Amino acid sequence: MADNPLHQPSSGRLMPGFILSMAMLASFLHVAHAGAEEPALRTQIDRLIAMQTADFDKLAAPVADDAEFLRRVTLDLTGTIPTSTVARAFLADQNPQKREQLVDKLLASPEYARHMQRQFDVALMRRLPQKHVPVAEWEKFLRESFAANKPWDLIVRAILSSDGSDPANRGPARFYLDRDGDPHVITKDVAKLFLGVNFECTQCHDHPQIEDYRQEHYYGVSAFFVRSFVMTDKEKRVVFAEKADGEVTYESVFEIRDKISKGPKSTLPKFIEASAITEPKFNKPEEGYVVKPDDKDKELRPIPRFSRRAKFAEFLASAENRRFCRSSVNRVWALLLGRGLIHPLDLDHAENPPSHPLLLAHLADQFAAHKLDLKWLLKEITLSQTYQRSSRSANAEINPSDATFARALLKPLSPAQFAWTVMQASGEVDAHRIGMGDQATEQALYDKLIGYENRFVQLFGGEPGKPPITFEATADQTLFLSNDPAITFMVKPKSGNTADRLQKLPPDNIPAIAEELFLSTLTRLPTADDVADVQSALAGATGETRTAILYELVWAAISSAEFRFNH
């Protein structure tokens, strides 16, 4: 086998027109930029999106106004909404570079690292219950990696190579250990998360509907983990150890049923369509170990001379692994745009081609060329017109397919986003920030308010290990927003919160009250109708009645459909 088995096409067989598409992309970029400096990726994104759809200019929504963009990008990059002070300043700013400056500021903030930690924690761990590694250590590893802008391949490699034996760095080992080291669970999850492949139907037979997904592919990946097992070492730490021997075997249940099976098959480790890896041969089994297993000492962790799992981490998390880069940029695209170029994310195969194959290929190439820099990729996508389009078409009769990306898609807030957006809109965060003074760091505010986030996740996050895929409001959720003491406590007037700020404004200055209400909760200026509604609600109200109405106005904004979605 070649030293590196990753120079392979990006699916089980070459996609129809793949070679032609690559030639088209090269020609497009050459023609578009001949004699000039190649434009930024953000511009290339827009050109490749428009090129895919006939009459795209007629279908495309206009670029979002400043308020819509501010709310959307702040939610997408930090997991919450801006304060009314930030919103007011941004809307008044006449600097033509203010959107790029905003993105740079958000990406540099500690809130960005925390939000990315949450997003990838759910993606990678599905809110699985804590078993062997404290969740806080795992979260710390993710947060510090994103804060340092550690390249994505190095983050993934750290996760996939960790065994939990280092007491100072057990966080990344949670990926394996809290799955109990189950090779079947791990095989399916790494295929979904890092290769864009759903192996749910291939453990027992070839996929009955997807030709590209075969049982041999499943066991080629599983062979990387067949020698690994969970054990407790001498320091009483649960670790993910590995033997120097052991092979996968498999039979198709269909062949067994039809009595045509020729017996169990085996395969060496390989990445789906790639060649199998080579591994050294030893004359004696004990020669395969740095530390040999001891039948009398069950706490002695064996260490093989050749680790299949280490090779898996090395080969998978690499800029040379086109499938890994392709799956990664598709996930980031879906995170920002609400839908993958390959949709669903884990069904990358020849019969489910990307909506924009040239764009996906170019994103993967550029991501690799920029050393898998996540901040760079996020910045370029968020500054594209494609990302910045309004969620409202210019013509109500125009209803383009979601797959065209001709307008912004509505995205329900995640449970954590919802929690922090409610806390910011109600002024709970502001009240604590004022009360804590110079001590109000992002970490300190998080420590004070994490209980609220946990409550929202418990109610909106689905079963442990099974986060919801689509948005569905339940009766319990509605009741929670209507009368739960946590919501009531946040929304009612107290020093520094939104209702308190509204109450301190001149009672006869209805436009100012409406402006502060809408900027604080919905990150936009009120319309004339909004001002009229506020005026009608407050007409003739004084004292405690007026206070109660102001509280109800804040609650009504937080409970609205406009608030519940990123748009």
Secondary-structure map:
Layout lengths: L17 H16 L7 H12 L3 H4 L6 H13 L5 H9 L5 H10 L2 H16 L9 H13 L4 H10 L12 H4 L5 H13 L19 H8 L5 E5 L5 E5 L5 E3 L2 H5 L7 E3 L21 E3 L11 E2 L3 H9 L5 H16 L19 H13 L4 H9 L2 H4 L22 E2 L2 H12 L1 H9 L5 H19 L14 H9 L1 H7 L6 H7 L5 H12 L6 H11 L4 H16 L2 H4 E2 L1
Antiparallel strand pairs: 1-2, 3-4, 5-6, 7-8
Polypeptide structure, described:
By secondary structure, this protein is mainly alpha-helical. 51% of the residues lie in helices and 4% in strands. The chain is built from 28 helices and 8 strands.
Strand order of the largest sheet: 1-2
Low-confidence stretches: 7-20
Largest β-sheet summary: 2 strands, antiparallel
Number of helices: 28
Identify the overall geometry.
globular
Short key terms for the protein model shown above:
567 residues; mainly alpha; two-stranded antiparallel ribbon; 28 helices
